[in-house]
Amino acid sequence: MTAGSPEPVRVAILISGSGSNMVRLVESMTGEHPARPVLVLSNVPGAGGLDRARALGVPTAVVDHRAHPDRAAFEAALEEALAPARPDLICLAGFMRVLSADFVARRAGRILNIHPSLLPKFRGLDTHARALAAGETRHGCTVHEVTPALDDGPILGQAEVPVLPDDTPETLAARVLEAEHRLYPAVLRRVAEGDRTPLRLD
């Protein structure tokens, strides 16, 4: 940031696994980017993405959901871990826990998620197998604002990929993941700049 420019948007990234989307987001937030990564948090103590975040110089935290008796207790611990980082935005990047309506409402418009389908099609899990079973010729991914309804917030960006005749769920998932790695950083930059016009990538 140059002198006199606004403070960068503070971004916390929540993961549960290897963190490939997290890595792309962190790598994109350099130079004159309007956002900065301030925390990578996982609900899985051994998540591979934690080591990747540390290697990129981003602080990490763990809030193991299994160590808490219910979702309310887990989310209270999540709040406590997030507080020191003071995030302006939270990016869910393969975070495999459903957040409560109360947690989401406290951050209305400030939680983003990437979902492996062209919403509103195929909310929930197993999106690639369901797209193949439905005979789709186009598939892809969506970045959206998180609302209390699952995979149902305002769409901020979508990227399409073709469904090939010999695709399996695995080959289609790999193609969609490549699109996710392009889409999520592009949408994050726009949101950090104050632009929530839906972005389309092909």
TrEMBL record:
It catalyses: N(1)-(5-phospho-beta-D-ribosyl)glycinamide + (6R)-10-formyltetrahydrofolate = N(2)-formyl-N(1)-(5-phospho-beta-D-ribosyl)glycinamide + (6S)-5,6,7,8-tetrahydrofolate + H(+). N(1)-(5-phospho-beta-D-ribosyl)glycinamide binds at residues 19-21. The record marks 151 as: Raises pKa of active site His. (6R)-10-formyltetrahydrofolate binds at residues 71, 113. It comes from the Bacteria. The active site is at residue 115. It is an enzyme of class 2 (transferase). PANTHER family: PHOSPHORIBOSYLGLYCINAMIDE FORMYLTRANSFERASE (PTHR43369). This is Phosphoribosylglycinamide formyltransferase. It comes from Rhodosalinus halophilus.
